[in-house]
Amino acid sequence: MKPTLRAKLLQALAPWRNAPAWQIAFSGGLDSTVLLHLLASLANTETLPPLSAVHVHHGLQAAADLWPEHCQSVCDNLGVPLRVMRVQVQLGASLERAARDARYQAFAEVIGAGDMLLTAQHRDDQAETLLFRLLRGAGVRGLAAMPVQRPLAGGYLVRPLLDVSRAELEAYAEAHQLKWIEDPSNADSRFSRNYLRHRVLPVLTERWPQASANLARTAEHLSEAQGLLDELARMDLQAAHPASPFPWLQLPSLQLTSLRELSDARQRNALRHWLTPLTRLPDSDHWASWYSLRDAKGDAQPRWRLADGELLRCGERVWWLPAAWSELFHATVSWPSAQNPLELPGNGRLEFIGKAPEGLLEIRYRQGGEIIEVPGRGRRDLKRLLNEYGVPGFVRGRLPLLFQDGQLLAVPTLAGLWPNPARDWQLHWMPQICDQGLS
Questions:
Q1: Ranges of H-type helices in 16-146
Q2: How far from 269 is each of 128, 226, 230, 274, 284, CA to CA, in Å?
Q3: 16 to each of 49, 114, 158, how far by Cα in Å?
Q4: Looking at the domain assignment, is residue 145 inside a domain?
Q5: How many domains does the chain have?
Q6: pTM (whole model) above 0.85
Q7: Is 230 within the bounds of a domain?
Q8: Backbone dihedral region for residue 434 (phi beyond 0: left; psi -120 to 50: alpha; all else: beta)
């Protein structure tokens, strides 16, 4: 016996029955109207988390100004609280993508810790997504299409209808005499997804009636394949994560020697996994920059610039530098009250461990020619010391140097690289992006 739509939904949502709250992304269209009606009905017979709905108003067409009122009426009739959020869409090359980005940013603002945002994408949407990404030349991760769940802000986004066809939703809506919004833009075949929905999939379905179901099944297979690739990446990255020679530098890094032992395909797989939480990934044509960085001479410092930062090689280690680390520092900052921490604009915070030295103190940045007193070694050129201890070049311009009366007293990140002077204090630096300080 074929399970009912209610049974399918309950089964799909079973892992999240104990969530603090369920919020429904409610556009007012057919799909989200059916999802909202199903959940409101189930709440009368099942013990569910508190339900609420969120409607995002993009303001991209005049007709949309009436939609919040319709959504409010539907929610009032079902006894579900509604929150309407108005967003500004940043127009660019893809209006679809810009609207989606604005929508999910709004959703992220309302999701509490552990909450679920339930969206109404269904099996036909999954088939369209797979086709769309296939035509764009996506890899396995992209062809896995929409996951059933993914993290969103402090909670999760869940798509409980991915195993349900559009026809099933239409039948439910007609049986319960539901009213919904018809978005005029959904008929505009200038948008890629609409073109696939109205011009491509009907032709495929005419020849292969199970086309949408089979495409969605393929996306499931590719999702499983991506899971295996992720497992392999974690294994390869574990070998490339030996202890950093600079534990005080809290930036992501990998050992190049371990990566070189892998095939090119495994290197790319491991790096994609490592870079995913850090930046938007490059397309296939840009991976030549990785090989240039990997194969450069040992004394070179090649860079691979990516969307949100860059990879930089120092010796046999590859470092990730966020975009903020490209900033250069030149200004002198006075430290009138050394008993209190000093906030460095764009460069974290400095504080003294122990009794701070008396007198007027200043923080400067490297200009060249600095000399520092090293216990047991006398006066030493700072540049030579940095070279001697292999301090990565990208750090040197951010080092906050402590001066008093024109004399360089301390360089925080170098404490521990040579014996501490006979002082009752240490200079401690907590860079802006780090969880732990440098001392």
A1: 30-42, 67-78, 95-110, 123-135, 140-143
A2: 26, 10, 8, 9, 12
A3: 9, 10, 9
A4: yes
A5: 3
A6: no
A7: no
A8: beta
